[in-house]
Amino acid sequence: MKIGQRSLLIGVRQYIWHPVTVWLAWHKLYGLPSLKETICIIIHDWGYWFCSDMDGEEGERHPEHGAKIALRLFGPVYSDMVLFHSRNYAGLWDTQPSKLYWADKLSLIYEPWWLYLPRAWASGELFEYREKAAMAGFIPLTENHRTWFAWIKEDLVKQVKKHQGMAMVNPVGI
Fold it and tell me: What is the pTM of this model?
């Protein structure tokens, strides 16, 4: 089974829990999402089903599948919201990440370590994420998983706070 499939079934992108946390983060950042936005929140990571990695060549293309579904259902505005929830796609198109990007990042505040880390470990994602952070010089592999999780959570909240003053509709205290 591919790591993307494991992620959607039992891992970090688990197809029920992850959309709930993204929905909660969206609500915190922007207010109540519309039905179309909620459906986009649900489908935004479905493309991982086809991926043998999370942050590699295949994983970077995961937004395409959800964006195609959103295009068929709701048109280009919603397709772009799903496609540009990826920093990679926003960079390729020289555009700002979508509102879904920020909600996706902030969703980690609703993840306790004792729920996130076992899922990330069981799916195999944890090791890919830890190696990437260590290779970038952020946090060494010698640190324990809980320390890494605390670091990534804090880093993502800092990113959202930094952006919040620039584009958030309903700025809130995080």
Answer: 0.90
